[in-house]
Amino acid sequence: MAIKKVQSNIINLAFTVTNEDGKQGVSLSQAIVNGKSEGVGLRTINGAKKSALISLDRETLVDLQTALAEILQGYDA
User: Fold this and answer.
1) What is the C-alpha separation between 61 and 52, in angstroms, rounded?
2) d(CA 18, CA 26)
3) Strand 54-56 vs strand 24-33: parallel, antiparallel, or unpaired?
4) Predicted model pTM
5) Which of 11, 12, 39, 48 has the fewest beta carbons closer than 10 A?
6) For position 75, what pLDDT does the model report?
7) From CA 72, how far away is CA 65, in angstroms rounded?
């Protein structure tokens, strides 16, 4: 007889970014299992409705970061 123990450390991170009234925005979520990202998802929020989950890989997240940085530069100008 053999015993095998498997223990997973699962962390679910979630960020919700909304406008001031909290009715519109985006939700980002990430599952981390044993210290490794297992997926990132994005949903839009419009009132009580949330869109379908859009899965994002690392490349897409970097592109999103670049796009947001460029947009924010326009606010600073």
Assistant:
1) 18
2) 6
3) unpaired
4) 0.78
5) 48
6) 84
7) 11
Q: Are 45 and 28 in contact (CB under 8 A)?
A: no
9: amino acid identity, one letter: N
| 57, 63 Cβ separation under 8 angstroms | no
- Return left, alpha or beta for 21; rule: phi > 0 is left, psi -120 to 50 is alpha, else beta: alpha
Cα separation, 6 vs 20, in Å, equals 44
Specify the residue for token string 């979520």: 29
Length of the chain counted residue by residue: 77
For the segment 6-58, what is each residue's pLDDT rounded down to a tens digit?
A: 888 999 999 999 999 989 999 999 999 989 999 999 999 999 899 999 999 99
What is the DSSP secondary structure assignment for residue 22, as one 8-state letter? Answer: S
